[in-house]
Amino acid sequence: MNSLIRIFAVLRKEFLQLSRDRLTFGMIVGIPLLQLLMFGYAINTDVRNLTAAYADEANTHLSRQFISDIAASQVINLSQRVDTVQDLNRLMDAGVIAIGISVPEDFDRRVIARDRSAVQLLVDGTDPIILGVAQQLTALPIAFDSQTAAAPLRLIGVRNYYNPERRSAVNIVPGLVGVILTMTMVMFTAVAIVREKERGNMELLINTPIKTPELMLGKIIPYILIGLIQLVIILTMGRYFFEVPIRGSYAHVLAASLVFIAANLALGLLLSTVTKTQFQAMQMTFFFFLPSILLSGFMFPFDGMPVIAQNIAEVLPLTHFNRLIRGIILRGADITSMWNEMLAMIAFLAVTLTLAIARFSKRLD
Amino acid sequence: MNLDPIAISATGLTRKFGSLIAVNNVDLEIPAGTIYGFLGPNGSGKSTTIRMLCGLLTPSAGAAMVLGMDSVRQSERLKQEIGYMTQRFALFEDLTVRENLQFISAVYALPRARRRSRVNQLLQEFNLMNQTGQRAGTLSGGQKQRLALAAATLHEPKILFLDEPTSAVDPQNRRDFWEKLFEMAQQGTTILVSTHYMDEAARCHRIAILDLGIKVADGSPKELGENIAYNVIEVVADNPNSARLSLAQNKSFTSITQLGVRLRVLIPKEIPDALEQVQLNLRQSQVSAQAEPVFPDLEDIFMAVTEERRRAEAA
Ligand SMILES: Nc1ncnc2c1ncn2[C@@H]1O[C@H](COP(=O)(O)OP(=O)(O)O)[C@@H](O)[C@H]1O
Ligand SMILES: [Mg+2]
């Protein structure tokens, strides 16, 4: 009973303070919006209208058709026509174009004979996204495997399938849920406690009969709610801006998110026990955030990583959450079919929370 | 009712921070219902001692019993019984005065009805009725101090620890504050207050003088004055500067402190004719001044005990 009174007192205090803290309040809404827009913007520009030039040395009916079909795909912006491959090389070295298309003199013969690739793509390999686009473009000549008349129809089919904009958003928005929650949840709790140390409030708090778990619970609960608000913002934006559907059940999204949020909050508490200033807390958050974002499968495919990186990734809650949320949102998977991912996050939560409570001392030494 | 006449006792209390000994082998015996002062300059270990007595810092050596409880092992039980006003304002600056007190009342888990009446009572008592809706961060120094004291006394503790409570407060507020303390002591609360103001220390029933972590003296201000090894001669001169220069030539005068036109001269008690020596010194330098023996005030006591310690160390 007394415990409840105290937890409720901390809760009320946190909410009052939150409602007066414009900066934190702004971050709660601002970070998800900004990240979503940032990624959305990047998706839209990087893979659309890449500047490109072409050298059509064949200049036949078929080659002109091929060029105009590529231009129609809007993935690249075929702004210039040059005479030779050397011209393309020059433009690429100068950074004027990201992609060059070289159509050789014997283009028609190659298309029909299919012994060598009919067209050569010159790609600025410094940017992995451009490389990705190029790989998609290489699929286009396959459409020329039969007769000239059939080509345009097949090209359209290929183009839709490889619409890069849609595919990326579908993958990235569910991934962003976890990334944004990792960043904000860990940081908010770590900072919320360290701030009280810095301001001297903690010396007053630890001299009262409040117990460590009461204080921690009172601190965590408001941020769980904030995490859920962010979840709703991201998924709603994803749904209406990027047309990412939620195929699975809302209850399963909620369940996975709740455990994930709690795991990150517990980590934030743990970080707060090893830091003395808000700045240190931010640094520690980043220290954790970076491997999370890099290794969790959000940025790079998990299977392509070395074993040691995979092992580290298995510890991070974001890895498991990404699998869960992608499964539920994109495949409509049932959470029970991925119980081991839930279990991994629960284990992380239990360990960090226990450590945080053990490490948090009601003493100053 | 706590019938034990000793509220706080400590033996060999020591606290180290790395190689620094912040509190060094301090013994304390503080009778219940008294106002006990810790007097000492900044860095002398006042806050560290108070934190150890509250159970917030673990002593490196020694132990303290507070209300019959061990300050380390029974610190959680102790917390219901003690109030602590930190040196730095520790309430929430982004909460209002009332919200702060409400929070504290709930953290001490007062019964619901009692919480409301107690908060209102304290707002009245500490003259904060006009500030109830004001954010604590925007209060004046005196108001902050009253709020902090209200928060520390909300759960009616038997012992109150006040760490330099008046450092950011104007004289009128300081007077009112001390009246409040006497009232509470009258009602049986034991009050331990640290300060570096001599006049405040002089109001305490008993004081301990701390210097570089060592307790160099303790007792009532009167006892301390009687017990120091020095006589104090006060000199009033038209030209106190020349009087000071003249007196400084006599190496047996331990210290000369100037307060406006008055000089206070500390002379070891071994020297029997202190007054005559001073008068002779002034006459020889042809400085016109009146000299008379006075009872040592706390400033003198402080000089005397820290001086003794330095001598002991040098020897
Ligand atoms: N947490 C700490 N870590 C290291 N040194 C400390 C700490 N707290 C106090 N000290 C040092 O201990 C000494 C006594 O400090 P303190 O008790 O705050 O003195 P006072 O309250 O009398 O001004 C000072 O030299 C101070 O720098
Ligand atoms: Mg201090």
The 3D shape of chain A can be described as elongated
Enumerate the strands of the largest sheet of chain B in spatial order, edge to edge or round the barrel.
6-7-8-3-9-10
Q: Which of globular, elongated, flat, extended, rod-shaped describes the shape of chain B?
A: elongated
| CATH domain class name of the largest domain in chain B | Alpha Beta
Are any ligands bound, and if so which? adenosine-5'-diphosphate, magnesium ion
Largest sheet of chain A: 4 strands, mixed
Taking all residues together, what is the mean pLDDT of chain A? 82
Question: Low-confidence runs of chain B (pLDDT<50, min 5 residues)?
Answer: none
Query: What's the name of the CATH homologous superfamily of the largest domain in chain B?
Result: P-loop containing nucleotide triphosphate hydrolases
Number of strands of chain B: 14
DSSP strand tally of chain A: 4
Question: Could you say which structural class the secondary elements and strand pairing of chain B correspond to?
Answer: alpha/beta
Low-confidence stretches of chain A: 141-167
The structural domain count of chain B equals 2
H/E element sequence of chain A: HHEHEHEHEHHHHHHHHHH
Judging by the overall fold, what is the CATH architecture of the largest domain in chain B? Answer: 3-Layer(aba) Sandwich
Radius of gyration of chain B: 23 Å
| Mean pLDDT metric of chain B | 93
Give helix % range of chain B.
25-40%
Task: Explain this structure.
The complex is a heterodimer of chains A (365) and B (315). Chain A has 15 helices and four strands. Chain A is α/β, with parallel strands linked by helices. Chain A folds into two domains: 112 residues, abc type-2 transporter like domain (abc type-2 transporter like fold, 3-Layer(aba) Sandwich), CATH 3.40.1710; 192 residues, no CATH class. Chain B folds into two domains: 215 residues, 3-Layer(aba) Sandwich (Rossmann fold); 67 residues, Alpha-Beta Plaits, CATH 3.30.70. Chain B is 37% helix and 29% strand. Chain B has a six-stranded mixed beta sheet with strand order 6-7-8-3-9-10, with helices on both faces. The N and C termini of chain B lie far apart (49 Å). Chains A and B meet through helix 1 and helix 9 of A and helix 2 and helix 3 of B. The site of adenosine-5'-diphosphate has 11 residues of chain B, from strand 2 and helix 1. The site of magnesium ion has 5 residues of chain B, from helix 1.
